[in-house]
Amino acid sequence: MSHLQTPERILRRLEFKVIRRLDGYFFGDYTGVFYGPSLDLAEVREYQPGDEIRRIDWNVTARMNRLFVRQYLEERELTAWLLVDLSPSMRFGTRRQLKGDTAIEFAGVAGYIISRHGDKVGLLGFPGRETFVPPRGGRTHALRIIHALEHASVREAAPDPGALDLAGSLRHMGRMLRRRSLIFLVSDFLGPQGWEQPLRELARRHDLIAVWVQDPAERELPDVGGLFVRDPESGEQLWVDTSDPTLRQAYRDLVAQQRARVEGAFRLARADVLELSTAEPLVEPLVRFIQYRRRKGRWNLAGR
User: Fold this and answer.
1) Helix/strand/coil (H, E, C) string of the chain?
2) pTM of the entire structure?
3) pLDDT tens across 182-235, in order?
4) Class of domain 7-27+78-301
5) Where are the domains of the chain?
């Protein structure tokens, strides 16, 4: 992270503080953690301890007089991708850590959970294509993903007119993926507009989860008098008087407009959203999100 912990130390801390707590909450059953409701039915099989009750196929169960569950194609061979924002704005944070650190933590947890489930997970960082880890499985692979993000987080982003922005990254991933995949788009979504249509196109073909990383200081301009503020993306500096109530209100209005735009893009793409904050540990947001995904899955399987 920003203080250069080793990937092994980061993953051990996540195992202790996050993954173990999720194990206690879900009793080690991750089949419904990140899998969306739009899965392709592959077959039915006999019920095994730990299977989710909502996946019992009652028609087959009645015919065979034994419990059978639906098994979906993605459960047999899932490939997940972490599409992670490495732009300068992710190096901001005023609470526990930087937004980029929160992104690394989430990538480590998601990578570990998916790998432990027996599936493959890959990484693509943006802007640029130099941060790339092809999809594989296993704990060592989760460490490889953390290492790649740690290495990218300490590099100074030099101006590169040809670098991929979010829209370009979404289009690139759409061209790269041949079969339906699970995609985690991890970003603060503060970059240039124009990514909304590529997001919709990618979400139509894949199960896309938007992981929205935020810092509380971005929502409200503090009243600390005059100071210089710097745009992390462009490097432009500007002196502002934060004690001016008109300025603070204008800032609140701008933040509200930006949030409405991002939420509207997610809604049009029908993408599920996991909101993470630099002020809050991962566990509670993950628990809330998992509960939401499982409720959503029950509604869809029930035909409602």
Assistant:
1) CCCCCCHHHHHHHHHHHHHHHHHHHHCCCCCCCCCCCCCCEEEEEECCCCCCHHHECHHHHHHHCCCEEEEEHHHHCCEEEEEEECCHHHHCCCCCCCHHHHHHHHHHHHHHHHHHCCCEEEEEEECCCCCEEEEECCHHHHHHHHHHHHHHHCCCCCCCCCCCCHHHHHHHHHHHCCCCCEEEEEECCCCCCCCHHHHHHHHHHCEEEEEEEECHHHCCCCCCCEEEEECCCCCCEEEEECCCHHHHHHHHHHHHHHHHHHHHHHHHHCCEEEEEECCCCCHHHHHHHHHHHHHHHHHHHCCC
2) 0.81
3) 999 999 998 788 999 999 999 998 989 999 999 998 988 888 888 887 777 667
4) alpha beta
5) 7-27+78-301, 41-73
